[in-house]
What does this fold into?
Amino acid sequence: MSESFFDLFVGTYSLSLPWAPGGHGVGVHPLRVSCDTAETETRQAPAPLYCASYQIIDATRRVLYSTSETLTTDPEFGIVSAYRIQADGSLELLNTKSTHGHGCCYLSFGLGNQYLFSANYCTGQIIVFRLEADGRIGDETDFHSLPFVNRSQDANVNTDRQCDWSHAHCVLLDPANRFAFVADLAMDMVYVFAFDQ
It folds into this structure.
């Protein structure tokens, strides 16, 4: 009986951060995991990407999308990248798009694989991109900066995350693809946006 495997892609932080101490990764690592023994093996060299903190794979299982999480002190904005998953497990870069902010930390799909939603944690924004038929990230279709109220005088405030910016941490669509729900860790709120595709 032959051993069965599944592919696993692991993103890594490229520098030490308060929430990721000791980070020194180089990108997204393609691994293979044995279903029988749970042992992992490296399939190919990692796809180089700065602070590749979050990945998702489309429904066809042929395209992987990754964030590149930058801090507000970084000179460049964060990016999202699209990679074609090759038969040998390697990742071929299709394209990248700027998120126009820092701390790109979350990705999700809308209308199946037609739209890609991105959240910038450090600067409190959400961005929507159209996805092309070949998996490339297409044009930006929407951009929102979340409102922010300085809460430094609140008795129960967490000064590490609630006194500088809004912190978009997640963006998900409802099952009918009518509304986008955005979690804001600074304001402790969930914002609801109508999604008009």
About this structure: The mean pLDDT is 88.
